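User: Fold this, then the next.

Assistant: Folding the first:
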Amino acid sequence: MKPTKEKIDGIVLEYDSGIIPPPYSHVFRLSLDWGAGSLKAKLDLHYTDREELSEEEILDEGFTVNDDYSYQGSLNNIWIDPILELFQKTKWSNNMLEEGGIMVGTKTGKSSSELKAPSNQEEWQLMAQDLIQAIYETTKKEAPLQVKYRRITHEDSVDCSLTVHFSNREVSFVQGDKTRKINWEFAIQLMKLVFTPDYHYELAKEEPGKKRGAYIDCGDGYWHELGKGVVNIDPSFDAVSRIRSTFDELID
């Protein structure tokens, strides 16, 4: 399963969350085709085993009673090269997945290859998540992800924000009245950092702090103070300090 880059007209991704319990357990099939020059996508996503839960239990986990989603339409061509780059570096396993995961197939003309398990499961799952997020943004189902940051020192107070547009793989950094583009991979690594620590919502505020410190809003309207309302889960990895230092690097 290693056609040349030029011969691949599309890919098919099939995912099963495996042993994850409901209401989180789900499956999806995402078909992408760029053989005609533009990127066409078809997504069918279904949440599984929810009949075991009451409506209240589903709502309490932040879901709705019907989170299944289907889409058939276009995506920005900007996604084609990253997909091909990931495909070209992937090694494949002939083993079937026993506890969930993602399977990948290719399209060439009117034919499709059999689905195989990529050895770099996490990378393909992240790619699929990004593509689904791009679909959600394209259809206005969800807004772009925006993270706000405030730093207060003895010398000054700085407010800034980072907005990640999955629909076109662009990232905007805003500080005051200045806006600039940020490297996509850099921004994605920062987002991974942002969502690594534990956030204590009982300490969160609807307004950012006014005392010396660093504060972050992850996009849900709640402000958390780094080091107090945001704490490291893994004592061997100081994600909180990394978040602070990375945003400080972005600030002029």
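Now the next one, as you asked:
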Amino acid sequence: MIPYDKRSGKIWYNGKLVDWSDVKVHVLSHGLHYASCVFEGERVYDGFIFKLEEHTSRLFHSAKRMGIEIPYSEDEINVASKKIIATQKVENGYVRPVVWRGSEMMAISAQQTKIHVAIATWEWGSYFDPKLKVEGIKLNISNWRRPAPNTIPWDTKASGLYMICTLSKHEAEKQGYTDSLMLDHEGNVAEATGANIFFKDKNGDLHTPIPDSFLDGITRRTVIGIAKSKNIKVYERKINPSELSNFEGCFLTGTAAEVTPVSCIAEHQFKVCEMIIDLNESYLALVKKKKAA
């Protein structure tokens, strides 16, 4: 795989299309040292960004929660996002808008820092090995927990919130797993390291944690809508890890993960059942259909 700093083409950077190799961030940027940085992850299907406006709105929400004022409007970011995928000729890939504080101040306070915005895009396939999306991925259970909601801006895609996700995923991979299940501050099921989680019970109903200390994913909401359109009951509730053995199926949802079945969480085994396959197919049909919207 080509390192991301060695790729070619253009990146939209502070209002201009800049050569990929010329986009520079100073080593003393506040965003690097103090995690004053927010971002989004978006999917391109057949040349169109799925739910672009929702992603951009969430980017602005994240920035506002972090005390960052983005020096562009949401419409300008939407236009720039479409422009960069056209410039890069990305048909099926990923878009990464990112906003961070610059290097004017180097301390906790960052009132006078410049706000930088960049949007990069590249061709990108499945987040997980396609074979694993058929067989189901394996999760361990992380020792790290999602912090209490009064300790962090939990409803944002802020870079600092992903530190424990990286630690959890690295540990999972060392143990032979694909990803890690994270619990919340109360010990209930929360999410995977970069995706929301659903469970199917023996009655054919779905259960998913209440997003009260972690991100309510755009894909999560989309899949809930698809499930309800199929008359599948969806219960958003607290789920204790002791309940895992009661469920028959499990899957993750996320912009990168899309709909990915889970074959096991630690010692708990799950089936890649017809419902999960159908939800995945319906989701993929939806994202392809939206290009005409």
